[in-house]
Predict the structure.
Amino acid sequence: MCGIIAVVGKEPVASLIIDGLSRLEYRGYDSAGVVLCENELIRFRESNGTDSLSRLATDVILKDCKATLGIGHTRWATHGKPSIENAHPLFDCNNEFAIVHNGIIENHFELKEELLKRGHEFTSNTDSEVIAHLAEESVEAGKNLGEILSKVVSQLHGTYAIGLVGSKFPNELAVAKNISPLIIGVADDFIAVASDIPALLGKVSEFYLVFDGQCIDIKDQEINVVSANGEITDILRTEVNWDLNAAEKGGYETFMLKEIHEQPSAVADTLRGKKGQLSTLVFDEMRLSAQELRDIEKIFLVACGSSFHAAMVAKYAIEHWTRLQVEIDIASEFRYRDPILDSRTLVVGVSQSGETIDTLQAIKEAKRWKSTVVAISNVVDSSLSREADTVLYTRAGPEVGVAATKTYVSQITALEILALALAELRGTLYPSEVDKLFDELSSVPLLIDETLKSETTYREISREISYSKDFFFLGRHVGYPTALEAALKLKEISYLHAEGYAAGELKHGPIALVDDKVVAIGIATKNRLLDKVKSNLEEVKARGALIAVVASEEFTKYCFKVPVTHELFHPIIDIIPMQFLAYELAQINGNDVDRPRNLAKTVTVE
Ligand code: M6R
């Protein structure tokens, strides 16, 4: 997830671009960059984490450039580590075209290979740079910039919002969109295009929606749709009545709520580009051979908090599909218990931030024993990714709320991909079976969408059971990690007493706590042990607890209904109503859900 902005007008645009970028910074801040176009393209780039943009602003202001055309970018690294070289805008070979891009170009390997053969020279490790070089090749007499970009995007597979400027195209801007967001704002003396409304709020008088497949040329205060994919051949005016504070959160009242709603795209982006490539194990940073992975005899999954719960789900999937033995460890315990590690052991460190000290130390311990290390991280070039032999990135974009939501479901997704890849590599599943499972996993984003439509009902049920101060979450098989994650969410943001249990374990002690003040929530979706979960719920009901369920069939009054998917993919869906439960109860208690007390987003102390 990155933010782009492009402005063309009659007055200098530098400050508009910088200000817009500051409002897009929530989309990533690995680096920031601007190109201002006079007779040549003047580029400014900084890569210094949260300082990137303030440094960039100083550079741009000092230059006092009066250009009336420019593009800007704030980066959340997906391909290529955060660095000046990988910061956008990116140039072609002759510095005649500059591009900014948000999204993922899935066929960039193939395109780059071809471009290299034709003599192009690359200066970054990004997937995006191919766009600038393709623009260089697409120049033809009489073609405007929009037409050039249209030819470029016809060769791209993947997601994109692109801004293109050229030194030989004064006061002209071209933009294109596919899946990644893009909005146009029109003011009296300029037209601007940006990844999100906040970048332009209060500065333009009209907003227009750009549709997927559209490629647009903007010049002399005119907007021309050069090419469209499908029937929508024009842009569409839209009303925006947000205030700025709400707008930065995409119109949602908190970052957490926004991030809950971003889960369909977080999962879809994590899956993107992986289909058909499992047998060759296309990780994001590959420093391992397929043979090395075939030789693995045992797997350890190490993680903390929500990441640990995602890893617990993966244990069920990996063992089931690969028949490899999987152990799972809380990272802070792992290295102190003298685990049996060797060169035939695969250790998977799961961490959205990639900076959690305990997970990092666990990975270091594994390396000390020459084990193979895979990182699952949401942050490109995080300490964990650098330490690992190979990385599989979750593509959830930055998560601001302290409670993990979209990164949690993306981690499960990435781990399911790893499980399927290992099964295909080791021959424990036929390729056709892997394909079928992958297709079913690929339909999960749509099911999350469907689940999110029940938000109002989920929140109503949550209010009805909000009288209780004691919540038990009960699940079996992969419902067990969901029960643990649901309890963690509730504790973390609503400060209520919540416990997650393996439902079958309850009668070995905890059931003594059950009385009529307790609410017990069963994870009762499609699962080989569903009947047993139902019996366990009856046991607590008989002791006075109020029963609620996450289920696909309404067999009790308080039902958080969810759609059906494969048993091993259900945790991705089942946690969503529980996120709303935690959210609603936190709101009722007046808590700051984005910054709950006593917690930090990233834990870098032991
Ligand atoms: O960045 P990590 O995934 O390593 O973080 C691990 C935990 O600190 C994290 O999942 C924490 O439990 C979340 N705040 C839970 O919502």
About this structure: The chain has three domains: 3-248, 258-442, 455-588. The radius of gyration is 25 Å. The first strand starts at residue 3 and ends at 9.
